[in-house]
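The instructor's notes for this session suggest beginning with a concrete chain rather than abstract definitions. Hand out the sequence below and ask the class to guess, before any prediction is shown, which regions might be ordered.
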Amino acid sequence: MSEAASTLAPHLVSFTATLLMLVLTLATNALRKKLNTDRANQFLDRVDKVVGDAVLEAEQTTVHHLKAANEDGKLTADEVYEVASKTFSKVKSNLGAAGVREAKSALGKGEEELDSYLRSKLEAKVALLRQGS
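After discussion, reveal the predicted structure:
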């Protein structure tokens, strides 16, 4: 990597994470205005907490150990995929079947759109976690 690219990379990651959080915040606010119900808002808060908890759990129980086991201290692409898949599954499991139904109802979306929403939330939480470290 060139010197200019290595100098700009941390700033680009930070900018991208901030932009992603802004977009997700705006999307969540738009959904809340559209739904405008306490129950839906409470549920969106619950989804946010479940996602955040799953990301923190993955970081503490898996990512830290995988990084320590690798010489360069980084995850391989396969490891990133595996952790992301397990974390996504953990979120859906923690929501439960009733929670997934309620999420689809609260968001007015189907299964694919809900999965996309949850993956976006996961990515945003990971970006925030990276920013903090």
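Then share the key points. The longest helix spans residues 3-35. The chain has a mean pLDDT of 84.
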